[in-house]
Write a structure and sequence with these properties.
- The protein is mainly beta.
- The model is unreliable at 5-10 (pLDDT under 50).
- The chain is built from four helices and 52 strands.
- Strand 51 (591-593) and strand 52 (598-601) form a beta hairpin.
Amino acid sequence: MRGGIICALLTVCLAATGRTVPAVMYVDDTAGSDAAEGLTPDRAWKTLDRVNREPLIPGDRVLFRRGGVWRGQLVPRSGTNGAAVTYGAYGTGAKPVLQGSVARDRREEWVCLHPGIWATPVYEPEALDQLADLKDSRWSLHAEASARAHLSRREEDGRGFNRVVCDAPGSARNHIQLWGTELDGFPSPVLLRLRVRSSIPFRLDEVEALLNRPPYTRTRSGHVRSALIGKEWRTVEAVLYETATGSGAHLHLSLGEKIPAGAVFDFEPLGLWRLRPETRHAPIPCDVGILLLDHGVEWGVKKWRPEDLVNRLDYWYDGEGQRVVLVCETNPAVRYASIELALTRTIVLQANCRDVTYEGLAVRYGGAHGFGGSRTQRITIRQCDLSWIGGGLQDWRKRKGGERFPVRYGNAIEFWNGAEDHVVESNRIWEIYDAALTNQGHGDDSRQMRIRYRHNVIWNAEYSFEFWNRPETARSEHILFEYNTCVDAGSGWAHKQRPDPNGAHLMFYLNSSATTNVVIRNNLFVGTTEVCMRMENDWRGGLSMRNNLYWPGDKPFLRWLGKTFFEAGGFTRYQRELALDSNSLLAEPKFMNPAARDYRLCPDSPGARLATDGGPVGARW
């Protein structure tokens, strides 16, 4: 059956392109044109939008001009086994950059609110013609975990509306979900208007468009303006921006943990309106994970309320005004030559993709993931640079006492849920909010199979490698992490502004999946703010560790099962009691030129002959 599906998809791709022979497409950010055919460097395409529109066929190659920079999101096309679609580089110079930020480095893009406080301009959307009437559209309710709610259709004064009665809100935003009409074929952005009221006031912060099937990709999102919902009917607006491509997405409201227990929430979608294009100051359409100044010379510290803007370079994203507010002694565009706002979007969104190769690209300045997506097969990421990733808002959660708190996120390369037959090799990765490399999942069908990470050089990520998978019905098999150089876990831009600073090279959160043959060998783990390794539960039956070199400095080597710490002096006790890391060593390495990020071992360094083949541990390039 699977082979039949692949053949059918291949037939559709070939029919869409009219080609049967793979081709090479060229993309040039300066001299290219989206009206060009793209088949030669002098007839190159120009934008990521043009690349994303092309129905590529297996074996095609898309090459970006070295030295170029493309802002936005790459949505790759799938190849077939043995005929991958490749995204790479041509020409000479620096690696082509895929960049997930917007620039705000012109003086006129900042206004002074009062001395020492600057902001990008407030966005005031202007509605034009109505595109769709959504009154009387059909909605459904999904509740899970401990949440209890039901949906009904009501009428009042001759006007229909939907009513949600909440008995228990649950503890996460997805515990109560409302699904509405399909939202395909509309421009971006588009204005949504809703009529709302609630017997118990609460804030409705966001409206989305989601696929109502795995992987549940969010294709649009928007903040609700004047989001507090009270007892009287009022109309609220949300400007919905496209966050990913995909058809079949539905309007979606997440009410879990937001709506109070006992609340009666009434709502009626009114319609969608076209917006007048903003020609002077474009709005900032989503949360900003990193405020990056002069390409990392300095950076902002994210705050969640305007009253928390106290110290220099504190910043706050105002979702309603779609602007950033920053503490700075003068106009930021006078003080800094470059100001980049990393948007909370995955830069390379490869959900449901298979047989894709990325070579020689630079992926940077994104507030979500660098590479991300679920249900992927045969992905290769090779010789790429990934930097300054993560820090955006994932969601708001509640503590046991009812206090809401924000959760930030962002990994350089993440394989989520279904992930099979991947290779990640010879990449450089630095300044990452969460993990440089990770495969993780949560779901009965989460299969993490045959994934190889090798010869990568990592520094200043909170975690170098993070792994977990659950529940018990999930499967994790043949995960290989070898010949990687991992330096200074937790020493990056994000560590001091995290609510949970916990730098670790190997972060093994709760893993309850059926796990076999996870191998950690021939690696170099040096420097950490907390521990070299953290393991939350005991799944040693599926884990093999050997021939690694560790140097935690003055920090503990291991945090075991949440409570027990093994200090550096107890390394041999750790080896003996836990039966892990045979032939491994705890010693301070000698690097060739660490100031230049050359972390190769000197010939006389500990670990220079420690690997299973008798050579040096760590990346060999």
